[in-house]
Specification:
The chain is of the alpha/beta class. 29% of the residues lie in helices and 18% in strands. It has two domains: 5-79, no CATH class; 91-201, no CATH class. It is built from five helices and eight strands. Helix 1 runs antiparallel to helix 4 (67-79). The radius of gyration is 21 Å and the shape is elongated. It starts with a strand and ends in a 7-residue tail after the last strand.
């Protein structure tokens, strides 16, 4: 009789590290998960392990296997904090948008996630400024930047709003604010949101 093999969180963390270090590919995750699910002598008694294994087995209906998502799975295994939806599902931010609008007395005016926002400078810097002008064709009217503002024609580069999910998902909760609103936030929890009538005339 074969002895049962117990899968632990450290086993899955090691698999994440292999991927992040470039030692295995996306398909290896699917094969690893499938083998765990179908092998009779393998077991685990942890809901987080179970959820992640089934996500890895079917990335086409769950979350794609990307470096960002693998980092998030590793974080979940280490801390129990599940941020996969925040970084992958636009609709996970809708209620947060409505809460921000209520807090700052704005009409909820959501954007089409497939349209463009203007990105200026490195969004990994701090603090982050955001302003919403009236939209023009193909754009949301939102412009986001860090550091010094510039009037240069090439300061803002277009980016599909949806792409922010995998880079700065915490910005999405502000994108329901109406035309004329602006915000200023930083990584230490500072938040200021206010209405600027001038933005509606640009």
């Amino acid at each position: 009789m074969n002895q049962e093999i117990k899968i632990s969180r450290s086993d899955l963390i090691a698999k994440c590290d292999q991927y992040l270090n470039g030692e295995i590919k996306e398909k290896d995750f699917e094969n690893y998960a499938w083998n765990l699910i179908t092998e009779e002598n393998i077991d685990w008694d942890d809901d987080v392990i179970s959820d992640i294994i089934y996500q890895w087995d079917s990335p086409e209906i769950n979350f794609p296997i990307t470096k960002q998502n693998v980092r998030l799975w590793k974080q979940q295994l280490e801390t129990d904090e599940d941020l996969l939806a925040d970084y992958n599902l636009w609709n996970a931010h809708i209620e947060r948008q409505k809460a921000i609008c209520e807090k700052y007395e704005s009409k909820w005016n959501p954007i089409n996630k497939k349209l463009k926002i203007g990105i200026g400078s490195d969004l990994n810097a701090d603090p982050i400024h955001g302003i919403r002008h009236p939209k023009v064709k193909g754009t949301t009217g939102w412009y986001i930047w860090t550091g010094e503002y510039s009037e240069s024609d090439d300061f803002f580069q277009p980016m599909c709003a949806e792409h922010l999910l995998q880079t700065r998902p915490e910005l999405i909760k502000y994108f329901g604010l109406d035309v004329g609103y602006r915000f200023l936030i930083d990584n230490n929890g500072y938040e200021d949101v206010w209405y600027d009538e001038k933005l509606k005339n640009v």
